[in-house]
UniProtKB/TrEMBL annotation, chain A:
<feature type="signal peptide">
    <location>
        <begin position="1"/>
        <end position="20"/>
    </location>
</feature>
<protein>
    <submittedName>
        <fullName>Plastocyanin</fullName>
    </submittedName>
</protein>
<keyword id="KW-0732">Signal</keyword>
<dbReference type="InterPro" id="IPR052721">
    <property type="entry name" value="ET_Amicyanin"/>
</dbReference>
<dbReference type="InterPro" id="IPR008972">
    <property type="entry name" value="Cupredoxin"/>
</dbReference>
TrEMBL record, chain B:
<dbReference type="GO" id="GO:0007165">
    <property type="term" value="P:signal transduction"/>
</dbReference>
<dbReference type="InterPro" id="IPR001633">
    <property type="entry name" value="EAL_dom"/>
</dbReference>
<dbReference type="GO" id="GO:0016020">
    <property type="term" value="C:membrane"/>
</dbReference>
<dbReference type="Pfam" id="PF00563">
    <property type="entry name" value="EAL"/>
</dbReference>
<dbReference type="Pfam" id="PF00990">
    <property type="entry name" value="GGDEF"/>
</dbReference>
<dbReference type="GO" id="GO:0071111">
    <property type="term" value="F:cyclic-guanylate-specific phosphodiesterase activity"/>
</dbReference>
<feature type="transmembrane region" description="Helical">
    <location>
        <begin position="12"/>
        <end position="32"/>
    </location>
</feature>
<dbReference type="InterPro" id="IPR000160">
    <property type="entry name" value="GGDEF_dom"/>
</dbReference>
<protein>
    <submittedName>
        <fullName>EAL domain-containing protein (Putative c-di-GMP-specific phosphodiesterase class I)</fullName>
    </submittedName>
</protein>
């Protein structure tokens, strides 16, 4: 939960721009339930500053991928450290990134570079219930909603931006996000409330914190 | 309905048995058919339940297999390649099927495309829509031309990358395997229910599948059990198990056949047994029945029965009864046909035997013992019976055609053959000679005299006398003629029947004048004058001519008509007397009264009705013998006559048994001497002397003396000489009708007696 809540900006490169606005996105179901694990991206006229140097990590702990949903920029290198006593076999058959790291044990880690935008569903071959999603995006700003369904994005330049919201269990096309055009000018916080219909996961994976 | 006990018993026993057998058969039918159908249904249900259980197991197994396969890394890896690599997918499916021993497999991708390794056709979009709700699905489905039991499971990697559908074929062999579970040869059929239609998809019997609707199912002929199977994608399937009812009932029919055979044999045996038993009962009964009929007809025959049961005892009782009846009948018959005292056959017996004989040359004779009553009074009834018996025995020694019979009253009948009447008479004379030999009765010799009347046997005419009666009459005739034998004389016997009808004619005779009174004058010998007349009855019958008064008066007496006759005579005479008196001829009238009427009161009634001015001018002539039967009442009636003022004349005095004792009793004013006293009358004769004495007797008793039957002047003279008062007879005047009498009285005539003699 703490990790889930640690929404981060990977658009660190935008620091230095004097005039910047903030965007607060609230994602909830039509019934009004706050929706966590939604990925919010903002892409605008400004040019992206490239791949940040941040190291991305998706740990395996208690037979759970942590975090459940992670958004990374294209080209990001994500480590998959095993923090369990048992071995895991992390794989993805997603077209955006197919990879497989056969059984590796505690303390070991494997890294994957996600070089194509898209959704990568990650599983463990020996633990069917283990499930995680990495959204690879080209957008300069991205955040994942916390358990209150809120994502805060800051440093948005003036102009019209495309705000996209994606959730791994969203209804309909699982790869196409909800897209909105939002204009920003000057500083201040703009709040966008987004309703999203969630299909029940067939396996109803229980996120274990 | 049944006239024979045997038929009745046999029928009822057989019917009862048949009824029982039919009831048993009905019960067996009902029970077995219920059982058979029940057990067939149970089989169907059991098979259905087994199928359901098996199906559940197989689905479960299939599901497990599918779930395992869907998580197979390699398989998931292959699926995740997507529709762009169909051949890889197909090979993976083939591999999967091989592992799972499945018949069909599909991969369905999230985009709706589907791939199978065996079937080229993609799954219909509607099916995919139904299935792609993220859940597992299972049930029957028709893919291509075959039905399958299938399981659909989503494939996660770890997100949903598609579904796999794996199925096993539900075909004829499955159905055949299914029906082997049942102990009876049932049929199984799998139907797809699609929009109200039933599409056969598999069946246990190899017949061509044909679509049919639920309505056409031959209800009643088939026992059915249906099982709904869930469909994979909406459409349901139905397993239909059926068993022909006929087949279920088959064992029952063979049982019923056995039962029918047993029933038929039993019925035959029972019928024969019942018939035999009934015969053992009814055959003696039939013999008894025949014997009773024989008794009815007069044949007494013992029934011999060896059995000692009720029927045997009945037969014994019957035999005893028959013997008793026979004995009694014999006694009664004997008594009816024999005289009780003499033991000789009686008249009924004799006549019965006689009727059977040819009439022509048979002569019937009745032999009468003279003075039978005095003999009987003398020796007593018992000895008389002995006497008759002895005479009968003598008759029995003779050659007769009918045994001699005792007619009672001292009469015996005998019948014999005689070609002519002379022969018969000779034979009878001989017979009487034999009979008149002295008879020894109780040590005493008794002489009997006998006579015989006879007649030739003939058929009795209707209402006529029988032959025996004729012979008896002939006997009477012979007695009357003082002859030993006499042949029946029909003429002298007359015709009693015709005489009887005469009485019927009498009343009409009164009315039309056939019966009339004739008057005979009486001459007063002193005065030579006619002072009185006697009224005499005359009947001129239109058919029979003049009928003698003694005949019809006697008949009137015997038939009770005498009252009417006397009354008519009295009234007629009174009327005539008045007529004469009116014409200047007053006469004293005498009428005859039957002695039978004296004492019965009828005469007194008559006296009251007579209207006469001077009763002393009417005289009632009554015979002396009239008082002999009942003197007291007769004399009482006579006194009544005198009290009425009428006078009485004693008629026919001197004939028969004249009794001075009676003469003394009768209050008469006149004595009428019978004509027999005038026979051979001559002056100075004994007859004249007797006449004189009689006249004097009459005078001495204060009576006038009348003589009747005077036919010549000599007699008249003697009568005058002996002092007789009145004379009557043909010499004076014959009886004449009233008109002639008047004429006769008025005519001039010479004196009946010479005057000289009178004066002398």
């Amino acid at each position: 939960m703490k990790l889930l809540g640690s929404t981060f900006l990977f658009a660190m490169g935008m620091v230095g721009i004097a005039q910047a606005a903030d965007l607060r996105v609230e994602v909830k179901t039509p019934e009004g339930t706050p929706l966590a694990h939604a990925v919010v991206t903002v892409s605008g006229p400004g040019k992206a500053t490239g791949v940040p140097a941040n190291a991305f990590s998706m740990a395996q702990k208690n037979k759970t991928f942590i975090p459940f949903v992670m958004v990374v920029p294209v080209g990001a290198k994500v480590a998959f450290p095993n923090q369990d006593e048992i071995k895991h076999h992390v794989f993805s058959f997603s077209p955006a990134k197919r990879f497989e790291h056969e059984l590796y044990g505690k303390g070991e880690t494997r890294t994957v570079v996600f070089d194509k935008p898209g959704t990568v569903a990650i599983g463990c071959n020996i633990h069917d219930r283990m499930e995680a999603y990495i959204r690879v995006t080209e957008a300069p700003l991205a955040a994942v909603t916390d358990e209150k369904g809120v994502a805060m994005l800051s440093g948005i330049t003036d102009g019209e931006h495309t705000v996209e919201i994606w959730h791994p269990y969203q209804k309909g096309d699982s790869d196409t996000p909800i897209s909105r055009k939002v204009s920003f000018s000057g500083s201040g916080i703009t709040t966008e409330v987004v309703e999203m219909t969630i299909g029940q996961s067939p396996r109803a994976p229980q996120q274990q914190n | 309905m049944f006239t024979r006990l045997r038929t009745k018993l046999t029928f009822f026993y057989s019917a009862l048995f048949a009824l029982i057998m039919m009831t048993v058969a009905g019960g067996v039918y009902s029970m077995i058919s219920t059982n058979a159908i029940g057990s067939a249904r149970a089989q169907l249900e059991a098979t259905s339940a087994a199928f359901q259980r098996l199906e559940t197991l197989q689905i479960e197994q299939l599901r497990e297999n599918v779930q395992i396969s869907s998580r197979d890394f390699g398989f998931r890896s292959a699926i995740s390649l997507g529709p762009s690599e169909p051949e890889t997918i197909r090979s993976a499916l083939a591999n999967l099927r091989l592992r799972m021993n499945a018949d069909v497999a599909y991969v369905i991708f999230p985009d709706g495309t589907s791939i199978s390794d065996t079937l080229s056709a993609a799954l219909p979009a509607s099916m995919i829509d139904t299935l792609s709700d993220g859940n597992e699905h299972e049930g029957g489905v028709v893919l291509g031309q075959s039905a399958y039991r299938a399981v659909l499971s989503p494939v996660f990697a770890p997100n949903l990358v598609g579904w796999i559908l794996v199925g096993n074929r539900l075909d004829d062999s499955q159905m055949q395997a299914l029906v082997t579970l049942s102990s009876i040869p049932i049929q199984a059929e799998l139907l797809l229910l699609e929009g109200g239609r039933q599409i056969p998809v598999a069946r246990s019997t190899p017949s061509a599948p044909e679509p049919r609707s639920a309505a056409s199912a031959p209800e009643g002929q088939l026992l059915q059990q249906t099982l709904r199977l869930p469909g994979l994608a909406g459409d349901e399937m139905e397993l239909e198990l059926s068993f022909p009812r006929e087949l279920a009932l088959q064992p029952m029919w063979s049982l019923l056949r056995v039962l029918a055979v047993i029933g038929a044999l039993g019925l035959a045996l029972l019928s024969i047994a019942a018939w035999l038993l009934a015969r053992s009962i009814t055959s003696p009964l039939a013999r008894l029945e025949q014997a009773t009929r024989d008794v009815e007809d007069g044949t007494y025959q013992a029934v011999e029965l060896s059995s000692s049961d009720e029927i045997g005892r009945l037969a014994n009782s019957f035999n005893l009864m028959t013997e008793a009846i026979e004995e009694r009948t014999h006694t009664i018959t004997h008594q009816a046909l024999h005289d009780r005292e003499t033991g000789l056959p009686n008249r009924a017996f004799f006549e019965e035997r006689l009727t059977g004989l040819p009439p022509s040359d048979v002569v019937v004779s009745v032999v009468g013992i003279d003075r039978f009553q005095p003999i009987r009074d003398a020796i007593g009834y018992a000895q008389t019976a002995e006497l008759i018996k002895a005479i009968g025995a003598r008759l029995g020694l003779l050659e007769t055609v009918v045994p001699p019979a005792d007619l009672s009253g001292g009469l015996l009948a005998v019948a014999f053959q005689a070609p002519s009447d002379e022969d018969a008479e000779n034979w009878l004379a001989h017979l009487l000679d034999v009979l008149e030999q002295p008879v020894d009765i109780a040590g005493q010799k008794i002489d009997v005299m006998a006579r015989a009347g006879f007649v030739r046997n003939s058929v009795t005419e209707a209402n006529g006398p029988t032959v025996v009666e004729k012979a008896a009459i002939a006997l009477d005739q012979a007695r009357g003629a003082f002859a030993k034998t006499g042949l029946f004389d029909a003429k002298s016997y007359g015709d009693p029947v015709a005489n009887l009808s005469l009485m019927g004619d009498m009343l009409t005779g009164f009315e039309n004048g056939d019966i009339f009174l004739a008057y005979q004058p009486k001459l007063n010998l002193q005065t030579q004058k006619i002072e009185s007349v006697e009224a005499l009855l005359r009947w001129r019958h239109p058919q029979r001519g003049m009928i003698r008064p003694d005949i019809f008066v006697t008949m009137a007496e015997n038939t009770g008509h005498i009252r009417a006759l006397t009354e008519w005579v009295a009234q007629r005479a009174v009327a005539d007397q008045r007529t004469l008196a009116d014409s200047g001829l007053p006469l004293r009238f005498s009428i005859n009264v039957s002695g039978r009427q004296l004492g019965d009161g009828s005469l007194i009634e008559l006296l009251d009705t007579l209207e006469v001015s001077s009763p002393d001018q009417l005289c009632f002539e009554i015979t002396e013998t009239a008082v002999m039967g009942d003197p007291d009442n007769a004399v009482s009636d006579m006194r009544a006559i005198c009290e009425h003022g009428f006078s009485i004349s004693i008629d026919d005095y001197g004939s028969g048994l004249s009794s001075l004792a009676y003469l003394k009793m009768i209050p008469a004013q006149e004595l009428k001497i019978d004509r027999s006293l005038l026979l051979g009358l001559a002056p100075q004769s004994r007859e004249a002397f007797m006449l004189r004495s009689t006249v004097e007797l009459g005078h001495g008793l204060g009576m006038k003396v009348v003589a009747e039957g005077v036919e010549d002047v000599e007699t008249l003279e003697i009568l005058r000489d002996v002092g007789c008062d009145l004379a009557q007879g043909y010499f004076i005047c014959r009886p004449v009708p009233l008109a002639d009498l008047t004429d006769w009285l008025k005519q001039e005539r010479p004196a009946f007696l010479p005057e000289a003699r009178l004066s002398a």
